[in-house]
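To the wet lab folks,

You asked to see what we're planning to order before we commit. Fair enough. Below is the target structure as tokens, and below that is the sequence we designed to fit it. If anything looks off to you, flag it before the synthesis order goes out.
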């Protein structure tokens, strides 16, 4: 009777390598064996030898023979996707991230956009709500300087930036890319709308020039056109914050006398807790929501 417990992929590996699992289990004094036990037996080392002190090698757990469980198909990851995956994994592992959630009433923005529709068309631009978000974010970055900063790799120095460049995450057929709107604090709504549209089109066509990438003060990840009520965007070092936006929805808001149906957009602010604390994040997003609620202030 079989005494050793092992997954089908581990048994398949042991068979290929000529390892008797019953003998291996007896030599280790264990009844449950994993892939690294078989690999250690093949290499002649002790199980766990050479693994980092912080824990097991994740690749060992992920290196599974999936075909042992049913039919599979293989599709290679593109170089772009592999680089992005490495960067995101490193960011998530190294940065202590926290996400603060809030929401903003966008009714005033929608009304304001309608008054500017003819003028925007005359200037050859489509004025979207995203232009208002970029403008509001630029205002906040000027007021809250630690959000417009980067931390040195050793964590000893904070670099405070006197410029305001805002990255816009764009979903393309080739993967996610983040072109940057330069000097967003110095541009009006029409110019911002034109920059956003131009950068998004070039990103979709893979025609972004090198100077359109990198150097952002902060980035926006806007999923409003797709859906969702909240998410946790990952901070993209050397930035220390990122703002997530999801779909605007109509919900009842108390105006002091009665509930009124209002368009409300969810906001998700992820930040590097080494640089920014929770109270600062709450104040930052409260100011941001206030600007979205009163867009005329963006023109002052």
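Sequence we intend to order:
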């Amino acid at each position: 009777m079989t005494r050793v417990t092992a997954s089908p992929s581990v048994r398949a590996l042991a068979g290929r390598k000529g390892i008797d699992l019953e003998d291996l289990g007896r030599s280790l004094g264990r009844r449950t064996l994993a892939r690294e036990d078989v690999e250690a037996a093949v290499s002649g080392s002790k199980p766990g030898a050479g693994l980092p002190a912080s824990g097991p090698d994740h690749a060992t757990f992920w290196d599974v023979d999936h075909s042992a469980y049913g039919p599979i198909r293989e599709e290679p990851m593109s170089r772009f996707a592999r680089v992005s995956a490495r960067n995101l994994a490193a960011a998530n592992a190294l940065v202590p991230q926290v996400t603060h959630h809030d929401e903003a009433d966008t009714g005033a923005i929608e009304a304001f956009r309608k008054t500017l529709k003819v003028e925007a068309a005359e200037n050859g631009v489509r004025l979207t709500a995203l232009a208002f978000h970029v403008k509001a974010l630029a205002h906040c970055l000027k007021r809250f300087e630690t959000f417009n900063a980067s931390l040195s790799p050793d964590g000893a120095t904070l670099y405070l930036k006197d410029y305001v460049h805002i990255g816009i995450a764009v979903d393309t057929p080739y993967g996610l890319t983040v072109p940057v709107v330069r000097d967003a604090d110095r541009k009006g709504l029409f110019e911002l709308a034109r920059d956003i549209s131009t950068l998004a089109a070039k990103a979709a066509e893979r025609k972004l020039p090198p100077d359109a990438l990198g150097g952002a003060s902060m980035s926006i990840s806007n999923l409003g056109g797709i859906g969702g009520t909240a998410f946790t965007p990952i901070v993209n070092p050397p930035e220390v914050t990122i703002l997530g936006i999801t779909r605007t929805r109509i919900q009842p808001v108390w105006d002091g006398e009665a509930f009124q149906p209002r368009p409300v957009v969810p906001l998700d602010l992820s930040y590097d807790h080494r640089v920014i604390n929770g109270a600062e994040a709450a104040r930052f997003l409260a100011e941001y929501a206030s600007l979205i609620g009163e867009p005329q202030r963006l023109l002052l």
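Structural context that might help your review: The chain has nine helices and eleven strands. The domain at 82-299 is CATH 3.30.559.10 (Chloramphenicol Acetyltransferase).

Thanks,
Computational group
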